[in-house]
Amino acid sequence: GAGVSQSPSNKVTEKGKDVELRCDPISGHTALYWYRQSLGQGLEFLIYFQGNSAPDKSGLPSDRFSAERTGGSVSTLTIQRTQQEDSAVYLCASSATGRNYGYTFGSGTRLTVV
Amino acid sequence: AQSVTQLGSHVSVSEGALVLLRCNYSSSVPPYLFWYVQYPNQGLQLLLKYTTGATLVKGINGFEAEFKKSETSFHLTKPSAHMSDAAEYFCAVSESGNTPLVFGKGTRLSVIA
Questions:
Q1: Which residues pair with residue A85 across a beta bridge?
Q2: Which residues of B touch A56 (CB under 8 A)?
């Protein structure tokens, strides 16, 4: 597509429920990233997919967080048993590699856990 | 490990005045450097980037940044601020074209009429 698409744009969930956040990257971008943005905390790296390689999960804050990328395209970030501290904006970005490296971000999903 | 420091979480300038947003980084290899802008309730948009070559990089909306290796800096400037420049600005570093960006905590720019 023309840009990175994220859905839903807003999600309110009850504490303890599971949520799924979706990211549809730019066609042809082999790299896909998830970040979390909390007020005053900047952007926190969560997970990185590059082509068919094993994902870099080093930023996931706990085992309640997981992500997958199907067919090298769409990605889903899943948060199990949500907690209030999970409330944040979750941003997805995709990128070409090499000299064209540079993220294109989606508009994000604002997650509120009540 | 890479890191980015943005000096000043909030910068306020008058309309027409010089904009200077500071960014210092640490990296064990020649870095890739980026500035992103985030307008309220929107995602991040690329302003400019440095990968190799000319150290003075020009971006969108009249912004530019200069890579100074000796100072490990990549400060963002614009000669004359507009009201529409009010936003959050993020500096970021990567060690290659294949690793995740590390972002600074951001600087919120306010422009006063």
A1: none
A2: 100
pLDDT at A96: 85
Q: Name the closest residue on chain B to residue A107, using Cα atoms.
A: B43
CB-nearest to B46 from A91, A102, A107 is A102
Please count the other Cβ atoms lying within 10 Å of the Cβ belonging to residue A38: 13
| DSSP one-letter string for A23-63 | EE--TT--EEEEEEEETTTEEEEEEEEETTSPPB-TT--ST
Do the Cβ atoms of A40 and B103 come within 8 Å? Answer: no
Q: Is residue A52 predicted with pLDDT exceeding 80?
A: yes
A74-83: average pLDDT? 97
Is a pLDDT exceeding 60 seen at residue A1? Answer: no
Contacting residues for A65 by C-beta, under 8 A, at least 6 apart: A46, A47, A77, A78, A79, A80
Query: Residue A70 pLDDT > 70, yes or no?
Result: yes
Residue A54 near chain B (CB below 8 Å): no
| Chain B residues near residue A50 by CB distance under 8 angstroms | 98
Flag if A108 and B43 touch (Cβ within 8 Å): yes
pLDDT score, position A100 = 73
Residue B110 burial (CB count, 10 A): 14
Query: Confidence class of residue B65 from pLDDT cuts 50, 70 and 90?
Result: very high
